[in-house]
Write a structure and sequence with these properties.
The structure holds two protein chains of two kinds. Chain A is an all-alpha fold. Chain A has three helices and no strands. Chain A has a single domain, classed as Up-down Bundle (F1FO ATP Synthase). Chain A is elongated, with a radius of gyration of 16 Å. The two termini of chain A are 20 Å apart. Chain B has one domain. In chain B, helix 1 crosses helix 3, helix 2 packs across helix 3 and helix 4 crosses helix 5. Chain B contains seven helices and no strands. Chain B is mainly alpha-helical. Chain B is 69% helix and 0% strand. Classes of the chains: A mainly alpha, B mainly alpha. The interface between A and B is medium-sized, with 19 and 22 residues. Chain A: InterPro entries: ATP_synth_F0_csu, ATP_synth_F0_csu_DDCD_BS, ATP_synth_F0_csu_sf, ATPase_proteolipid_c-like_dom, F/V-ATP_Csub_sf. Chain A: It is found in: Cell membrane; Membrane.
């Protein structure tokens, strides 16, 4: 069985964005749970943060294919 | 990226899906530019046009089912995205944001529609065309609103910061506005659609390959297909989310250009 080490590297690199995404949504959920009417304010912020964290994981994915 | 797992007794092992699965040949041999993604983009434009013309043609005070579904999408972009983010002069940007949202959404969802099953957005050229459009729009809006000099000064020298910090902050801000934003905006959509398509290919082609293996492997293959179905629903969620995020970021960038001090 032959393979590429890039994919293992990507797997390790994805840990960081995974933790970040979890923390962002944890904060969003607890914010909405404490103050349900703040949902519409928090939602774009949460998804913006999620998009930023996710971009890092996707850079890793692209580099795993490119390199 | 070469990997050959030999599970079956056949001559050739399993080749995992990769970049080559995205290189589709032209439909007719003579016309090189007419590939499946191009046709899908054209189809999406036709479908969106027909749907919204039909939904808005006979507008009633009490909407029917078709009008209601059309208005639901419009309302989501107009009130949920544009009005909340862009403030009082949001109506100017609603047509652009709405077109962007529906276009990206329909093209994304094409990758799980049976028979089509390919998203044009998983080819890097299409998301980047949209990202460049957004890039031009938010710079144009900022220059028109604040004037070229004031706009560039606002980007490079953020007000309310100690002078010494500019050494660090100015390069970062310039890189953010001119390189990182358009680059990540296109890449995010592309990579999500690319990875999603690849994920479904892995489970469904893998399940098919397991079917051809020995009896023990045949028993495992239904699990691979079940995962394929579950991930199809997961992908649907990701596709809607990415259409939302693309439009949300476009609105946020325009809002940043509109604000006098960001």
């Amino acid at each position: 069985m032959t393979g590429s080490l890039n994919v293992i590297g990507y797997g390790i690199a994805a840990i960081g964005p995974a933790i970040a995404t979890g923390m962002i949504f944890a904060a969003y959920i607890s914010g909405v749970a404490r103050q349900p009417e703040s949902r519409s304010v928090l939602q774009p912020i949460a998804f913006l943060g999620f998009a930023m964290a996710e971009a890092l994981a996707l850079f890793g994915l692209v580099l795993a294919f490119v390199l | 990226m070469t990997m050959h797992l030999k599970l079956s007794g056949g001559e050739e092992g399993f080749t995992p899906p990769g970049v080559k699965d995205f290189e589709l040949p032209p439909i007719f041999h003579d016309i090189e530019w007419l590939t499946k993604p191009v046709l899908l983009v054209a189809l999406s434009v036709v479908l969106i046009s027909i749907f919204f013309i039909a939904a808005s043609r006979k507008a009633l005070v009490v909407p029917g089912k078709l009008q209601f579904s059309g208005e639901l999408v419009y309302d989501f972009v107009r009130n949920g995205l544009a009005r909340d983010i862009l403030g009082p002069e949001f109506m100017r940007f609603v047509p652009y944001l709405f077109t962007l949202f529906t276009f990206v959404l329909v093209n994304n969802v094409f990758s799980i529609v049976p028979l089509l099953q390919f998203s044009a957005m998983s080819h890097v050229g299409f998301p980047y065309a949209l990202a460049i459009l957004t890039y031009l729009v938010y710079h144009f809006v900022g220059i028109k609103k604040q004037g070229l000099g004031h706009y560039l000064k606002g980007i490079a020298f953020m007000p309310g910061v100690p002078k010494a910090i500019y050494v660090l902050l100015t390069p970062i801000e310039i890189a953010t506005f001119f390189i990182v934003r358009p680059f990540t905006l296109g890449l995010r959509l592309f990579a999500n659609m690319f990875a999603g398509h690849l994920l479904l290919l892995v489970f469904i082609l893998g399940g098919e390959h397991l079917m051809q293996g020995v009896i023990g492997l045949k028993l495992v293959s239904p699990f691979a297909f079940t995962m394929g179905i579950a991930l199809t629903f997961f992908e649907f969620m990701v596709q809607c989310l990415q259409a939302y995020i693309f439009t949300l970021l476009t609105a946020l960038y325009i809002a940043g250009s509109l604000a006098d001090e960001h």
